[in-house]
Amino acid sequence: MPMHRLLAALLLSMLVHPAFAQSPDHFLMPMPQQVASGDGELTIDPAFTISANASSDARLHSAAERFLENLTTQTGILLTPQALVTEKAVLSVTADSPGDTPQKLGEDESYTLTVSSSGAELKAPTTLGVLRGMETFLQLIKPGANGFVVPAVTIHDHPRFPWRGLLIDVSRHFIPIKVLKRNLDSMAAVKMNVFHWHLSEDQGFRVESKIFPKLQQMGSDGQFYTQQQITDLIAYAHDRGIRVVPEFDLPGHSTSWFVGYPQLSSGDGPYSIERKWGIFDPAMDPTKDSTYEFLDKFIGEMAKLFPDAYFHVGGDEVNGNQWNSNPRIQAFMKMHQLKDDHDLQAYFNTRLLTIVKKHGKHMEGWDEVLHPELPKDIIVQSWRGQKSLAAAARQGFKGILSSGYYIDLMQPASQHYVVDPLSGDGANLTAEEAGRVMGGEACMWSEFVSPENIDSRVWPRTAAIAERLWSSQDVKDIDSMYRRLATTSDWLGRRGATHQSSYRPMLERIIGADGVPALKTLADVLEPVKGYRRGQLRKFTSQTPLNRLVDATRPESDIAREFNAAVDRLMEGKAHPDDAASIRSWMEKWRNNNAALQPRLGGSFLITEVAPLSSDLAALAAVGLQSLDAKEKGSTLSADWLQQQKPVFDSAAQPKGELLIMVLPGISKLAGITPAVPQRSQE
Amino acid sequence: MPMHRLLAALLLSMLVHPAFAQSPDHFLMPMPQQVASGDGELTIDPAFTISANASSDARLHSAAERFLENLTTQTGILLTPQALVTEKAVLSVTADSPGDTPQKLGEDESYTLTVSSSGAELKAPTTLGVLRGMETFLQLIKPGANGFVVPAVTIHDHPRFPWRGLLIDVSRHFIPIKVLKRNLDSMAAVKMNVFHWHLSEDQGFRVESKIFPKLQQMGSDGQFYTQQQITDLIAYAHDRGIRVVPEFDLPGHSTSWFVGYPQLSSGDGPYSIERKWGIFDPAMDPTKDSTYEFLDKFIGEMAKLFPDAYFHVGGDEVNGNQWNSNPRIQAFMKMHQLKDDHDLQAYFNTRLLTIVKKHGKHMEGWDEVLHPELPKDIIVQSWRGQKSLAAAARQGFKGILSSGYYIDLMQPASQHYVVDPLSGDGANLTAEEAGRVMGGEACMWSEFVSPENIDSRVWPRTAAIAERLWSSQDVKDIDSMYRRLATTSDWLGRRGATHQSSYRPMLERIIGADGVPALKTLADVLEPVKGYRRGQLRKFTSQTPLNRLVDATRPESDIAREFNAAVDRLMEGKAHPDDAASIRSWMEKWRNNNAALQPRLGGSFLITEVAPLSSDLAALAAVGLQSLDAKEKGSTLSADWLQQQKPVFDSAAQPKGELLIMVLPGISKLAGITPAVPQRSQE
Question: In this complex, which of A74, A513, A605 lies closest to B144 when CB atoms are compared?
């Protein structure tokens, strides 16, 4: 690593690494409601013990076991398993009650953590608060002068919103239980409390039904969860203070149901599992009683399997084509005075709601389910935005926000971070109305997600969303967020999330182990195209291998963000002492990297598409270096020369291999050359 | 990465990375007995299918499932689970018989693999051969011009030795089931077939006994395997063609037994679990009938739990102190005409053998159990060397070699690789005698091993031992071994072994994420001290945290080996074109690294000890650079100057933080300066 780069990294790290941080809040995420630093520090050594009052609560015991395992992982101190002692311990835990099973929406998650040089106390009304406080304690551990320590501190903490979720779409690409558990661990680490399990789609039905076995037998390619696995996963989540809300998307997004049960559909069939991405015609037939008889039995079975009080029925994106082209359905609509598809879907929802309620659940659905006549115990999940959410709240409905939290769109953490469920239209709600906004959910739609790279699409960005939903509304400093996100990302990685560790093997597959350093230099400043662009650039099916550079590359390039920020400071005359040197050193690295990479680029089909990106980056860096030279010498580059360089920028602004060069804005600013077509990195 | 370094890496990689290899045998390990390259290649794509004749064999089905999972991991091609088809498939598998349960010593593991552009055939006498051949097929997959391919090839293969084992000591440090399974996966990948589970020691008794529950309750700190876990692990191993041989070390190494059952010992007790490392006095009392009554019941229970035909009773390192100081035992020896401890141990072994045989097992033990009067169905495991092994074979005993394969001693792979069970005294055996040498076992003693770093102590070096035991005796080219070991190491890492992935998090714990590049530059050329030196340099107990740089650092530095070899070539006038540039570039990096690292070295107790290593390396590199300058200019450095630099080498030759600077030999040769005290890197 060049010296300047390293020095810059060192300076930055002195702000962020626990070992060098000045204050405990430098490495906490989500930021607690109140943090007061004390004097001194508590030593963590092999004599560490933990005590608890609530010895009758099995969940507290397993939490303590995991806590000790995580303590070992973080420190390398080999603790043997220990019973919770009741006498004085290093960490003394008190929970007033064990909390509910299943966990309830709005259950008290508050805790108080007091650490001094002589010991630590963690107190909470329920075990749930203890779980949250334990994660805070773990985040506070750092290496000190003579051993691992936790700085003295008093923390009073509670969540701002009671619903802090992550949706994982396991239908478009199947995600094995092991991978889900790993992600539940990370969710718990950042205090999230709802796992929204998106279980059925056109592309796959993922749950074993004993009553209607053809659902999984014919609708899943053999990729589904057994009921035993589901029960285990729910227990695993509950242990971590996470509710599991299942979603069965109806009446659209349901092709996979119809492979085994074509009679449920509004068309003729036969059906096969959908392999493409998009919105498709097949929809359930809302006009037949047999549809509701089926759903009654099915939801009855699922309501027993999933103990949570909420049951998500989807309801989004019905294009109505099957309904419109089916004369029987058209006749039914006329007879029942249903003037359009929306009315027909409302009719369906009303009957569905009766079934859901009959089986003891509250219904949840996407924006489209909203209908003024629905009862007020439903929850609306808004993918359309704060406006839609606020409108629902005004009508008396509870809601959660997902618009702005679609992490499949490859937006930077900062973009999600500024989205607040109570901003925009939400800011104008009365206190009572605002109280109906329960929180939000990050959504991991899985068109371009495999078990191998899902962690890197979810983490660390989702930790920023977790903070938005847990911490005070005034916690919104972007720089602070990014500093703490970096620490949190490393912490999650050490605890088992694979968002960092999957990177190298994926690069290695593309270029071989020895080519990784050069490929990584390139990949480190790339990002996948944004929004829904990827699907427009190339044809994909569910079987398209996700093994290309775009699948390995991180959604957000830290280096590009830092580089662009350094250029901004330089151009605004606010440069930090090392900015110019860092900018030069980075650009030299990129310019030289192409020569190192090019000889490798013919080796295999996975590498070929990388070549133009590497040339583009090198060409950009070369122009950037000349511009920097001129700037430092106080000379000016000729208009002719600038004009000649413009094609470099025009080319680099075009996505290649579905990837964008994210340092283009910085170099563009440095050179004063704007590409003809904007990069559209934020679409 | 400096250009020269990178070019050197590129040149090297063109020899080793599958994508660039000329011939399939460039990436196979262990090397098959016969490999004949063909024309063309087989494409691996989402249409891949696998068929099998032996559909009645459950083991073949689960092997095919794992095979497909590994195929997905290697290629990123998303294969859905598929039944073994019986019609024509891309890979057609035929096993003549399912093989034995439990697996037998010497069972046929041969296979024939034929790959052409139109398909592949894998044929074997038993499922065991299929398992081996599947791993070979997976090793052959590489990225081609248009997709993943397997080159056309015909391979006839079988193992040289029937016993190719890995011992893991789970007693000195407990190793959880999850970690063992991960290591079984890697063993299967390199065709090893015996997991030797070293289950009891002074420091811990790791098995649940239902008859004598105080063994685990009082002897394990709560760290033991339940019988259910053991049964599961054995099934897991059997699925992978691996036998599980349990070892209960007797009559010494047994303090942990006596915590719950002091009456078994030859001393007075009470006992507590031993926390230190070494050889301790406690030993079972061989004179009491009650000892054998206990062992009869215990071994009866364990013989049912562990189905393998062999049962290892240890027998090593009894120091005799308790026997010698116990008048009752001395009187017993006199009465039975047992002239010394060796005779007393033989008496014990004879009675123990009766018990082991009664419960249907063959006895196995370390060298010390050998006694001419023992029956010939026992197996002797030699930790003393080929001489001892050959002597046993001459007496008619079967044996396996472990001397030379102690991977806890931190020796390079090449040193283990040259050890052959049939070299040394073994080379003079008759064919019949040699036939009694069954193979060997790598031994992972765990004084300095934790679940976190065990993979990095076992892999990749054990793959070189696996090749020694599988491949033909004339496969012994060290350079070829190292090239294929690098590929194999990456391959094992992608399949789940953590020997590579644990490195970064352990460095991160020491210095924080941003300090890792600089610390890694240093750590990449360090190795832990060799042999039994570490325990002499510092006091350790089983609770000493294994979180220091020495615990993160790899047993063998690839960079140091490559650097030293380049210097050797340069000094011998046989330099490769880039050697001089690479040597310079490396040394510049090391010289500059200290400045980058020093500001970080005061941050925490884990970093402090790194400081002198970093200064030493920088000082060495500075001298090396001046020497290289002189050499390239054809000038000579003055004797005075050389004398002044000598203290740099004297200091660098001293271990610090239990670590050695492994590029010292190369720089020493370059400068012509020999440290006063040799580095003793190979002791």
Answer: A605
Q: Which amino acid, residue B528? A: P
Q: Best residue in A449, A514, A540 to probe B by mutation, most B CBs within 10 Å?
A: A514
What is d(CA A510, CA B521) in angstroms, rounded to the nearest whole number? 25
The kind and range of the H/E element at A400 are strand A398-401
Rounded CA separation B211/A75 (Å) = 37
∠ CA(B456), CA(B459), CA(B465), 5° rounding?
A: 145
B143 touches chain A (CB under 8 A): yes
Q: What is the pLDDT of residues B31-49, one digit of tens each?
A: 999 999 999 999 999 989 9
Phi (first) and psi of residue B36, to 5 degrees: -125, 115
d(CA B406, CA B402): 7
Rounded Cα gap, residues B597 and B603, in angstroms: 11
* Separation between Cα atoms, residue B161 and residue B399, nearest integer Å: 11
Supply the mean pLDDT for chain A: 92
Give the largest Cα separation in chain B, rounded. Answer: 82
B518 contacts A6? CB cut-off 8 A: yes
Taking residue A567's Cβ as centre, other Cβ atoms within 10 Å add up to: 25
**Looking at the complex, does the CB of residue B176 fall below 8 Å from at least one CB of chain A?**
no
Distance from C-alpha of B147 to C-alpha of A604, rounded to nearest angstrom: 7
Full-model pTM: 0.92
Spatial separation of the C-alpha atoms in residues A490 and A497, rounded to whole Å: 9
A269-281 confidence digits (pLDDT tens): 899 999 999 999 9
Task: Give the whole-angstrom CA distance, residue A481 versus residue A463.
Answer: 10
A7 vs B494: CB contact, 8 Å cut-off? Answer: no
Nearest to A123 by CA among A109, A113, A137, A108: A113
Nearest Cα neighbor of A484 from A72, A186, A139 is A139
DSSP B320-383: -HHHHT-HHHHHHHHHTT--SHHHHHHHHHHHHHHHHHHTT-EEEEEGGG--TTS-TT-EEEES
Between the two ends of chain B, the Cα-to-Cα distance in Å is: 34
A274 is catalytic: no
- Taking the C-alpha atoms of residue B247 and residue B269, their distance in angstroms, rounded to an integer, is 24
The CA distance from A504 to A502, in Å, is: 6
CA dihedral B134, B139, B140, B141 (to 10 degrees): 100
Closest in A486, A515, A604 to B13, CB measured = A515
Contacts of A551 in chain B (CB under 8 A): 76
CB contact under 8 A, A452 and B603: no
Helix (H, G, I), strand (E, B) or coil at A47: coil
Q: Which two tokens stand for residue B174?
A: 């407990």
Q: What is the pLDDT of residues B355-386, one digit of tens each?
A: 999 999 999 999 888 888 888 889 999 999 99
- If DSSP codes are grouped into helix, strand and coil, which group holds residue A525? coil
Q: Which residue of A has its CA nearest to B600?
A: A10
* B512 inside 8 A of chain A by CB: yes
Indicate the pairing of strand A119-126 with strand A91-97.
Answer: parallel
Residue numbers of B between 221 and 250 with CB closer than 8 Å to A:
221-223
Q: Give the span between the Cα atoms of B450 and A241, in whole angstroms.
A: 30
Closest CA to B528 of B677, B668, B649, B657: B657
**Is A222 within 8 Å of B606 when comparing Cβ atoms?**
no
- What does the block give as tokens for B666? 């190369």
Whole-angstrom distance, CA of residue A174 vs CA of residue A382 = 24
Tokens standing for residue B647: 């203290």
Q: How far apart are CA A251 and CA A290, in angstroms?
A: 14
Query: In chain A, pLDDT over 90 holds for what percent of residues?
Result: 85
| Alpha carbon distance B473, B423 (integer Å) | 10
* ipTM entry: 0.88
Task: State residue A680's pLDDT score.
Answer: 59
Calpha distance A58→A502 (Å, rounded): 34
